[in-house]
Specification:
Elements: H1 20-28, H2 49-71, H3 83-100, H4 102-107, H5 116-138, H6 146-179, E1 180-181, E2 184-185, H7 188-205, H8 211-222, H9 230-235, H10 242-255, H11 264-294, H12 296-320
Antiparallel strand pairs: 1-2
Helix pairs in contact: 2-5, 3-5, 5-6, 6-11, 6-12, 7-11, 8-10, 10-11
Bound molecules: protoporphyrin IX containing FE.
Biased composition (Low complexity): 10-22
Keywords: Membrane, Transmembrane, Transmembrane helix
Transmembrane segments: 54-71, 83-104, 116-137, 149-169, 294-320
């Protein structure tokens, strides 16, 4: 798949390793350096990082906002322009800017108190808390205007983030299951090598075929296994698969010919069938890998649209105020 520029993450939340494992190694070597991060094991997912620290912080933020919304004495009804509205709005805008900075943080491999795992954990939970904090900021006064546009874009970013979490939660397991067969685990590189080896065998076995049959087989050998649109990749459906077409054409040709011993068509057919199975596995692998990134194609561009709408919202509020 042609990957979109700028979205090739240097490190993802799914792959991020907390540097605590390094700390543990240092401790074993006698290099004692007690930091709070030593308490966190490298097996922690970013969702349960530090015993759910950011889940709790986000929960408290939501609770306090909700209690203030219910009990704060306001002269009129709730809306963004009350003192509470401004407070919740400022917190929300600050959070949105900080959440956006994860993109910068991901690309800066900085050591220190804030590991990428901690940052991502805070990102997820504080991002979710915006559903409560920013919605209470609006006072449910939504309409067809730039203010609601900013809120709607924020909700789209948040929902796409939820999809991201779901993919990170489920896909690595599916990826590893797809890589296993009776001989153990195969890497993507090995899958490609096996395909190349099958291609060489098909090429040799197809030598005795008629020019017409050989031409169909040739198409399968020429087709790049990575060829295909993003849609093909995400659905793992390749209607123009030359290998499938070659196998079907040869089977049809064989059905109308008398059976002979050591028919080269049989050998080519068997090899094409193996290639089809190998291709199916590689395509499942590519599909799962694409899904791990696909949601970011919504999450990141809509974040920038959100920043634009948020700026317009803030400027218009102060302009009309
Ligand atoms: C308005 C709120 C949000 C904004 C502005 C925002 C923005 C961003 C940005 C700019 C990135 C960096 C992407 C990159 O450069 O590759 C990112 C990553 C991420 N976001 Fe959000 N986000 C928000 C809310 C959420 C929520 C609510 C969730 C989860 C429920 C979430 C989950 C993630 C995850 C898991 C990553 C890390 C992806 C990775 O490391 O591969 N985000 N977000």
């Amino acid at each position: 798949m042609a990957s979109l520029p700028g979205l090739e993450p240097t490190e993802t939340a799914a792959t991020a390793e907390d540097t605590t494992s390094t700390d543990t190694r240092k401790r074993k070597l006698g290099l004692r350096r007690c930091t709070r991060r030593n308490k966190v094991t490298s097996h922690d997912s970013f969702l349960s990082y530090a015993n759910g620290r950011w889940w709790k912080v986000a929960g408290v933020l939501c609770l306090v906002s909700l209690l203030a919304y219910i009990f704060a004495p306001l002269p009129a009804q709730h809306f963004g322009g009350t003192w509470l509205g401004y407070t919740l709005g400022t917190i929300s805008a600050g959070l949105i800017v900080w959440l956006t900075l994860l993109g910068v943080r991901k690309r800066a491999m900085t050591p220190g108190t804030w590991s990428l795992k901690a940052w991502t954990s805070a990102h997820v939970y504080l991002g979710l808390s915006l559903i409560v904090v920013a919605t209470l900021h609006t006072g449910f006064d939504l309409g067809w205007n730039v203010h609601t546009l900013a809120w709607a874009l924020m909700m789209i970013v948040i929902v796409s983030g939820m999809f991201g979490i779901w993919f990170y939660w489920t896909l690595p397991q599916a990826l590893s299951e797809n890589r296993y067969d009776e001989d153990g685990a195969v890497t993507e590189k090995q899958m490609i090598e096996q395909l190349r080896s099958l291609d060489r065998q098909i090429h040799d076995a197809a030598q005795p075929l008629t020019a017409e049959d050989a031409a169909v087989v040739e198409k399968s050998l020429e087709q790049d296994p990575f060829d295909g649109s993003i849609w093909n990749r995400v659905t793992a459906r390749y209607p123009n698969c030359a290998t499938r077409r070659a196998a079907a054409t040869l089977r049809e040709a064989r059905a109308f010919r008398p059976r002979v011993a050591d028919d080269p068509l049989d050998r080519v057919d068997a090899l094409l069938t193996r290639k089809e199975a190998m291709l199916a596995r590689l395509r499942r692998h590519l599909r799962l890998k694409s899904l791990l990134q696909l949601w970011l194609y919504v999450h990141v561009p809509v974040t920038f649209a959100l920043l634009a709408a948020l700026s317009a919202h803030i400027v218009s509020v102060f302009f009309y105020w």
